[in-house]
Design a protein that fits this description.
By secondary structure, the chain is mostly helical. The chain is about 70% helix and about 0% strand.
């Protein structure tokens, strides 16, 4: 259904919209690349969040409340990364900032993917929770 709606959206935007929501005809290759990176990154984040809860609840036996509490550092690191983005964009090219974001998504996913079931929260899982907001 999602692909059908995407195709329908693109068809309407390209053919019939006089003032399109996304001016697809005017996008350059760089913008399309950045948008595709954002789509992949946020998709990876959604998958990470879903499997993080499944991992914590089903394999480690935590309650839903405990699994939620273990994600509270995201609020702190998310604010730190959000505030640092403006500084980074003044110091380096936007492409490098995008690359860093994709690296944070990758590293965070690798940390949780390699976490053993019987390992303490403070090892891989906590590191993944700290790093993942850097991609956002």
């Amino acid at each position: 259904m999602g692909l059908a709606f995407l195709c329908f959206f693109l068809f309407i935007e390209l053919r019939y919209a006089t003032q399109p929501l996304i001016p697809l005809k005017g996008l350059k290759k760089e913008a399309a690349f950045a948008l595709s990176c954002i789509v992949c990154g946020w998709g990876a984040h959604g998958i990470w969040l879903y499997y993080m809860f499944l991992f914590q609840e089903n394999l480690r036996g935590h309650s839903a409340l405990m699994a939620s509490v273990q994600l509270t550092p995201v609020a702190i690191t998310g604010v730190v990364f959000a505030l640092s983005t403006g500084y980074l964009l003044r110091k380096m090219n936007a492409a490098w900032v995008m690359f860093l974001a994709m690296m944070f998504f990758t590293i965070g996913a690798v940390f949780i993917a390699t976490a053993p079931v019987n390992q303490t929260y403070w090892a891989n899982t906590f590191l993944s929770v700290l790093v993942m907001p850097g991609g956002m």
